[in-house]
Design brief:
The complex is a heterodimer of chains A (417) and B (243). By secondary structure, chain A is mainly alpha-helical. Chain A has 17 helices and 1 strand. Helices cover 73% and strands 0% of the residues of chain A. By secondary structure, chain B is of the alpha/beta class. The chains are: A mainly alpha (417), B alpha/beta (243).
């Protein structure tokens, strides 16, 4: 009796259509319920109608669970999401949750959201008030940077992207000069353009900088400088010279031991006290230094991991060919070690980008900071949700792009086969 | 004939453990010397001292008229003149075979790139893997990798070649192709010091055999005499076990 009831290859022809019907009904019920508030089993008692999709889906999944049915799609399905009763329930629950959450999300983001208008009163719908983002957009991107001068930030970033594009497509021979220019010279030109003061450009103090452009400026500078410092610290920590070794260890452990927020606070409040009277270092520069050195310590440990992973034979082979310390490291050791730790480097740099909002402790407002400011504006109270969702999306896009780039780089540099 | 390598009373310790005991050794240009002995007898350490991959604590090592000591500049100059082939090949996996061969000539000997590539191709042809020049080490068989490593060392145009058990990490089938290259090299007049257990190879090319045990040179003799009429009992025992 049990054998007849058990789904098998023999009764596949009967069980498969029945099972699919059950599953179809179960999902139809969930979809109708969540999108049209219509429950076609509403006439059942509450408890049964509530669990109807789960019960029907479960029966359906049980009926189609046939091993080696000969149908490729069915076998694949059974193997991956329907291998046991427990897995079938997990599959159903996961899918139901996804379906159930789509509709409120779409409603909040688009259908019930307000896009048109210029003040909080224009937001009449139940959903998101994107008017908030629209009105504050310039502030979120440029901070307190004066409106008529914002073309300077645009020019700086657009020419950066253009240069990157040109460098990317330029022939190999010129490429390295382009990259050198991009990394070591362009940042200073860009900063000069944004800060002004010469060449007839109006001076804009760094306190006015802010928004997404400040996120980019801080991230870019910190990334460019923390990387070489980190590499030197890593080499220093493995050096045979005790002085260099212990200075490196001390430096790394000092910075790793304190939270970034403390470092920033110290850079902003304590550091000026140690300076002689009359000297002044711009707050942004102090913060940049703090973040760079902080992240360099982390970078150093990541790179050291790569150095330690290399077999001793690589060092010996390089030495036996007459290479000195610097040539050996630059040509043989670092190219391999850095390639090994690309995931770790990407990790550190992503963390760096996501740490930039912490500069609010010293009064600098990048993207998240500007949103914090905007949401406390009396005319726009209660807009925290829209603001932080927007900031979250922007950060996600930046970080995901970086992550994809690191994966591509890993693939491109792989010489394993 | 002058001496190209001279070791006088060389002693070396790893911590408390003495690996080399009063080693005296002289090598004339174009001589081929094969060092054999049980594992742990210090033979690898001995040849690694000759290009200072290991430091000795007592005695003098003079290579091509320069004494090996603390002075770094000298050491790099010596290393550029002394080629070394390792048991584990130690090719640079991130570079193609050709780049493996041209890297040191370009950066250490300051050869122009074109010239370095010419030299590299000549040596790769000599070890018969010129057709693999653009591949990466990971794509080659063990025998091919070891031949590439020999070519890499030859590209520095060394006066002396050191071989540290070059065939020990290879499949039996691939040993011959590497030994053939080494025989060819020996016939070309290269000064060679080879640590190996391949006694057939030793009989074919070696001028002298050295047998080491427990950090000491137990026996040093002309190849023919070494195999036909070994003097010490330790050597006899060793030979009876591996032949």
């Amino acid at each position: 009796m049990m054998n007849i009831l058990k789904p098998s290859k023999q009764n596949l022809k009967t069980y498969l259509p029945i099972g699919i019907t059950f599953i179809f009904l179960s999902f139809l019920n969930v979809i109708l319920n969540s999108f049209f508030q219509f429950d076609f089993v509403g006439f059942f008692p509450k408890g049964i109608s509530y669990f109807f999709p789960l019960i029907f889906g479960f029966i359906g999944f049980f009926l189609i669970r046939v091993e080696f049915s000969g149908l490729r799609t069915l076998d694949l399905l059974n193997k991956n999401i329907n291998s046991s009763n427990f897995n079938a329930i997990l599959t159903l629950l996961t899918l139901f949750i996804i379906i159930k959450s789509i509709s409120p999300l779409i409603n909040w983001f688009f259908l019930d959201a307000n896009f048109i208008g210029s003040s909080k009163d224009d937001c009449t719908g139940q959903g998101a008030c994107w008017v908030f983002i629209k009105v504050w957009f310039r502030r979120l991107i440029y901070g307190m940077y004066p409106d008529p001068e914002q073309w300077r930030i645009n020019t700086a970033f657009l020419s950066l992207f253009a240069l990157v594009g040109i460098a990317f497509f330029s022939p190999r021979k010129i490429k390295k000069y382009f990259i050198f220019f991009l990394i070591f010279i362009y940042p200073f030109i860009g900063i000069k353009l944004i800060s002004g003061g010469d060449f007839g450009l109006k001076y804009v103090e760094t306190a006015a900088w802010g928004g997404l452009s400040l996120t980019f400026i801080i991230s870019a500078f910190a990334i460019i400088f923390c990387f070489p410092i980190g590499v030197f610290l890593a080499l220093g920590r493995r050096s045979d010279l005790p002085a260099i070794k212990y200075i490196s260890i001390g430096f790394i452990e000092l910075w790793r031991g304190v939270p970034l927020i403390t470092v920033l606070f110290m850079a902003s409040v304590m550091f000026p006290m140690f300076l002689p009277d009359g000297t002044f270092i711009d707050k942004l520069i102090r913060v940049l230094f703090a973040i760079t050195l902080f992240e360099a310590a982390y970078m150093a440990e990541v790179v050291r991991g790569g150095l330690q992973a290399l077999p001793k034979g690589q060092y010996e082979a390089a030495k036996s060919l007459g290479m000195g310390y610097w040539r050996m490291n630059a040509l043989i050791i670092l190219p391999q070690a850095l390639k090994l730790v690309i995931p770790g480097i990407a990790n550190t740099l992503l963390a760096l980008v996501k740490d930039t909002p912490l500069i609010f402790v010293v009064g600098l407002m990048e993207l998240a900071g500007m949103i914090g400011l905007a949401k406390t504006n009396p005319k726009w109270l209660g807009m925290a949700m829209e603001g932080y969702v927007f900031a979250g999306l922007v950060f996600w896009v930046i970080c995901y792009a970086m992550s994809r780039y690191s994966q591509n780089l890993e693939k491109k540099l792989s010489t394993e086969r | 004939m002058g001496k190209i390598i001279e070791l006088k009373k060389v002693n070396k310790w790893f911590d408390k453990f003495q690996v080399l005991k009063d080693i005296d050794l002289e090598v004339a240009p174009q001589e081929k010397i094969v060092i054999c002995g049980p594992s742990g007898s210090g033979k690898s350490t001995l040849i690694r001292c000759i290009n200072r991959l290991e430091e000795h604590q007592e005695g003098n090592i003079i290579v091509d008229g320069t004494e090996l000591a603390e002075n770094t500049k000298n050491i790099e100059k010596i290393r550029a003149e002394v080629g070394m082939v390792f048991q584990q090949f130690n090719l640079f996996p991130h570079l193609s075979i050709l780049d493996n061969c041209t890297l040191a000539p370009i950066w250490v000997k300051k050869l122009p790139k074109k010239k370095a590539e010419e030299v590299a191709m000549k040596n790769l042809t000599r070890v018969q893997i010129d057709d693999q020049a653009l591949k990466f080490p990971g794509q080659l068989s063990g025998g091919q990798q070891q031949r590439a490593a020999i070519a890499r060392a030859l590209c520095m145009e060394p006066k002396i070649m050191l071989f540290d058990e070059p065939t020990s990490a290879l499949d039996p089938e691939m040993i011959k192709e590497v030994l053939d290259v080494m025989v060819d090299l020996a016939k070309g007049g290269m000064t060679m010091i080879v640590v190996t257990h391949e006694m057939g190879f030793a009989k074919e090319v070696a001028d002298y055999m050295i047998f080491m045990d427990e950090g000491k040179i137990v026996e040093r003799a002309k190849t023919k005499e070494f195999f036909e009429n070994p003097k010490s009992d330790r050597t006899k025992l060793f030979l009876s076990q591996i032949l």
